Every structure is written in C-alpha cells, then in structure tokens.
Amino acid sequence: MSKASRAVKVVQKVTPGNVIRTIIRAGQAVPGPPLGPVLGQRGIPIAQFCKDFNERTKDIKDGIPLPTRITVLANRTYELQINKPTTTYFLLSAAGIEKGATNPGHEVAGMVTLKHLYEIALVKSQDPAFVLSDMPLEKVVRSLLGSARSLGIKVVKDLNAEEYGVFLKEREERLAAEAEAKEEELAAAAKKK
After folding, report:
1. Cα 118 to Cα 140: distance, rounded to the nearest angstrom
2. Euclidean distance between CA atoms 166 and 162, whole angstroms
3. Nearest-angstrom CA–CA distance, 77 and 74
4. For 72, which of 50, 60, 111, 164 is 20 to 30 Å away at the CA?
5. Inter-residue contact 45 to 24 (CB < 8 Å)
6. Which residues pair with 72 in a beta bridge?
7. What are 66-123's pLDDT values in tens digits?
8. What own/partner pairs with CB < 8 Å and gap ≥ 24 does 49-52 have?
9. Whole-structure pTM over 0.90, yes or no?
10. Residue 136, preceding bond cis, omega within 30 degrees?
C-alpha cells in the first residue's frame, strides 16, 4: 500500500448510517439509553425527538412496541416513520400471555384461532414491509403462522374460552413449580460451595 493511498484512507471521514431502525414503546421514549446514545451520535436533539415521538403516539395505548424508522438528514433533522405494532405483540396479546414458550416446538405457551391470525394479518398487511413486497393476505397469514410457532403458540380452528382459561391456569402453575425447583437447585448448588 502506497503512502498516498494510506493518506487518502486517513482523510476519508467515516459517516454513520443515516437510517436508524428501532422498536420504541408508545409514549415511553426517554433520552436515556438505549435510544439517547444512538440519536446523540448522529447529532439529533434527543429531547426534541422524545417529545415529538411521544406526541405522535399519544393516541396509542402506552407501552405498545412500535417499530420505528428514523431517517437522519444532512442538516441534523430527522424524518420519523412509525409502523404498526410488532407481530409478536399481536400474537402474545391474542393468546393472552405475557411471553412465549421457553422451548418452542416442545411446549405450548398459548393458543390462537385462525380468525385471530386473519385479523392480525389484516392489520399487518398495511405495514411497509408487506406493502412493498406486494404480499397477498394468504402469505401474510402464513408468515404469522410461522411467528406463532416460533413463540410456542398453537393455532387451532376454534377455541372454547373456559377450556383455554383452564389451560392457562395449569401452565401458570407448571411454570411456577419449575421456577421454584430451579431456585431450590441453585440454593443447593450454593450450599455445596
């Protein structure tokens, strides 16, 4: 490598990417980590961004995770694009659970019906990712089916509310028993040391 090419590499200014993709909870944008440092590196006024984001999401229920695309412009301003909530959020709330299975494929964390998937697909089909690829509704439903499977959510044709309530209660008891057994195991391991 010649001296001239090394000098050119030193002079080239490294500019960070001008698009930031992140998931921010509705109405809960704060200047602290992890959002603050990312915006600060690109010269965006953090407090102004948080105020703008929270103002634009005030009509949405607080805490809903929203995929957000921030395009940083040359004059240190930004364009903010807020998409529909994540697929995971929709599936977990439709199943009535807080988190998916720890061992998907071997454990069922919850259940949703095909009607639930169809309703979620109608909302998600308006997302830019699906609109740009011109994806038909059937493929969106299949995509949701794969996401449900990876979360440990079983898709059924119809679901009885009473049976599902019993299923959720049994699962909760099983998870509590597993957590208790794990704590005892850790306590026994700590005593041996």
Report:
1. 9
2. 6
3. 7
4. 60
5. no
6. 78
7. 999 999 988 888 999 999 999 999 999 999 999 999 899 899 999 999 999 999 999 9
8. 49/78, 49/80, 52/80
9. no
10. no
